[in-house]
Amino acid sequence: MEKIYLILTYIIFPFQATLTIQLDLIQWPAIWATFTSRVLMSFVGILACLSISRARLLGLGAIIGLLMTDTNDIAVIYPTFRILYPLMAYHCCIIVALQVLILKPIAFLLLEMNTVRERRMILRTLNKTSSTHMTYRTLFKIIYQILLDPLVLAFAFGLIFNAVFHHNPPEYFTHFFNTFSETFVSCALFYLGLVCANSVTGVSARSKPLLSIILSIKALLMPILATKLYHIFAKNSENASAECFTLLYSLSPANANLLSLASRYAVTPNLVGDNISIGTFLFLPCLFIYQCVLDLLSTDASVYAHFLEKTAVFVSWVSLITGLWTRMVFMAGRKTRMMPHRFVICYLDCTLVTAGIVILGSFKDSWIFDLSARVTLTDYIKFSFYLSAYFCTRMWTAFICIGIFIQRKQGTIMPRRNRTVFYIFGLIVPIILTVSLKIRSQDVREVDVNPFYQNGRMQQEFTFTVLIICLLTAITSLIMLACTPIGAQSQPPQSSHLIRNFNLNQSETDSLTNNVDGFVEFDLEKEKLPTREPSQPPEEKSDAPQDPNNVDEFMDQTFNFGQGFFVFALYGSDVECMTKPIMKICSKMRERVTIWFLGIKRLKRQHGDIEAEGDGTPKVNLPARQTSNWRIAESFALRHLDICVAEITKPVVLKTRTVDRAFVFADFRDWLLNRNLCYNLEEVLSLLLSLELNDYIRGLSVNSVYALDPESCAESVFEFIYLD
């Protein structure tokens, strides 16, 4: 599947797009605005990473730059724009080619520099002369990877044939590529889902701050920056479709191929996997919100209330379904007894009640009411329950921050009696607020542009007051949390020795991501506050100008009813408790089928003639690619890789990171020989090269297995790089 995906993505689609596109119809302002915004955010991300880490985390800076720019334009954006804006869909391939030619060389250069630096550290620990440095061969390697990239070649050949055929290729070309285009969409989305399923490992507390910053920049800052740049580049030739393309294109999630790249260079592969999976899940909701905002700006004010009601009902459906799934994950994972998961579950339950009331209320009557109509008991109960659940969600957001702070300060789980106090306040205070609102407003309903504000100005004041109090409480708790050390919990640093020559000096290292136990990456109270004006009578709405505050109100309303999806994005992907038994069965079936299909057998002794040198000692020849095919690596990975990793690997602490699965070649050789998996050094080197070519290992003290000296390779250090 991966090979088919690469062929379709990197060859067929770019060639087809550039073969049929008309150069005079290209919206260059949209392309330059999108590309410039990505260049700026890439440089800002790299410089921020290098500045905070004092130029130590070169690899992480490169990965952050790629997460900002190398997005999944082909597998996600292209099918989406084929539906929304068909004329703008082929602009994706131009932006992708510019990214590969201009931005990827910088990332590759930083990754190679990071590899050289780590290799120099390893050689120093082995008491060897460190002669590792950047060479012209490395630069030529980067240029070779860029210029011979299949996407760039397909793009170049497509432009050449475009000029030859004058934008009108033969008919058989058109039918052939249309068939592949239809195949591409299903194949690309299936491979993307496969990568997301394999990369979901649960977001760790260490990567939450950095992950939330990257996703927030891509979801909030980049679309606004790209739109502003489009207005600058377009000047007097603005196009509505091109402007929408510029805005929505910036929401594209990270490319699935970045996972293999990060794993190959051993630079935060889990962070990249989490970014791909969560970014892909958040893409459609963000796309829906921004598209609704664009439609809202061109919609007449008279239909705004109906537009807002339908949006709230739809978002409530999404929140309810995803929230119920997350609730099942919590129950299956037995996290209902843990803190702060208990408070998160209470917050999620309040969100589910709010979404359920909105959905059930829309079945019978519309939320848009008539002042002349009589208020029934059902309407009164429905709105009272909705308002109480709304206040509950606000209060439990602050309670989560307070609970995390108390647990961090005490260093132990919060006692049951303390939790009971929060449960009582979380249940009684919303009821008191709702009753107080009804008394103060004298239960008089007022027509507002938002149908969920039925008590007019008084309800706005209550809502705004509760929001400000909870927001200040949450911010204060988080500030105190950052200033409070962990109580009675001190974990001594773990010393790791690869071999007895490895006596590493533990130096203080700067990290971009601090390990905050139980930290929730973004505050659920930080949404835009709408500033509402007194509502107008229904007959005057159609003549009133479009209010720009409606956009803020729409964003606020979407967040209110879509909070279940945000909880799902944080905790819903942690489904290991439910999928682990299924994955175990599937893994065994896959192993048996693969072994039977490929005819994999245990490596046997090679009975070939051994060349001898003058002194009679056997001469070991380095293996070639032909002798180290992928079947050897797959056979070893299926049967022995997990046991080998558990027995011969040891962690090594470097200044930039901790290598958790490092091993010495001598240990690997002895392990294979003792188990009779290999019978001589040549077979060991052949297996090692096969593992390297298939991205199972990478060299730490050497560039590659090709660079090994058979006579002095016993102390060479390697690393297993497959994902957890």
Automatic annotation (TrEMBL):
Record's protein name: DEP domain-containing protein
Superkingdom in the source lineage: Eukaryota
Lineage of origin: Eukaryota, Metazoa, Spiralia, Lophotrochozoa, Platyhelminthes
Stretches for region Disordered: 527-553
Keyword Ligase: no
Transmembrane segments: 30-50, 57-81, 87-111, 142-163, 183-203, 210-234, 240-259, 271-291, 311-330, 342-363, 383-408, 420-439, 462-483
Native species: Hymenolepis diminuta (Rat tapeworm)
Keyword annotations of the record: Membrane, Transmembrane, Transmembrane helix
Keyword Acetylation found: no
